[in-house]
Automatic annotation (TrEMBL):
This is DDE Tnp4 domain-containing protein. Its cofactor is a divalent metal cation. It holds the Pfam family DDE_Tnp_4. It comes from the Eukaryota. GO terms for molecular function: metal ion binding. Residues 2-49 form the DDE Tnp4 domain. InterPro entries: HARBI1_dom. It comes from Rhamnusium bicolor. Keywords: Metal-binding.
Amino acid sequence: MFNYRLSRARIVENAFGIMVSRFGIFEKPIACSPETVDKVINVYCALHNWLRTTSSTYYTPKGSFDEEDLDSGKIIPGAWRQDIKKKFDFDKLHRK
């Protein structure tokens, strides 16, 4: 049961990570009411799903998502992770 739930969480992480790397609106807080933010996120999720269906070779080419090496059990990071690292300099973030 734990592995199933963990794998479902990775799917959401991959989908949202790709959306952040592709759509600039997710790069900072969305300045709208919570109700509007819900609608915006739903629209972008629908757009993401539509692009995956109609343009997957361009929108999410092979290697975009995290994958598991079935021989070793290790996770191979998807390309979206590098896209996000290029956009955001996480080394400059300071925790208090």
